[in-house]
Design brief:
5 strands, Rossmann fold, alpha/beta, five-stranded parallel sheet, 134 residues
Length: 134
Amino acid sequence: MNLNVSANGLAGLKVMVIDDSKTIRRTAETLLKKEGCDVMTAVDGFEALAKISDQKPAIIFVDIMMPRLDGYQTCALIKNNPQFRNTPVIMLSSKDGLFDKARGRIVGAEQYLTKPFTRDELLGAIHRHVGAAA
């Protein structure tokens, strides 16, 4: 990866946020843009998949509970595509259950954040997963 996640922040890092909640999308987008990220959003998995193949984000945050295509299905589709297999996927959920976390791992998610998430949790996930790949 040619992304520079370092002391100069996350300038230009492509981040995808998939959530059917406008509030969550806007919150994540605002926090990430302040750090210099190039943020794309989608309301569900179908919209996201088209944008992912077009924009090639470095990391993807995906809500579990969404209409049409839920977060688990979306994550599985991303991870089953050889082009995006190594793209980190972070699950977002208002539930903090062991079953949900285990199911996220099964479909290939790197991490699980409980909503409402904090700025530090979002940035920590990016540094943990994209920083290691850079």
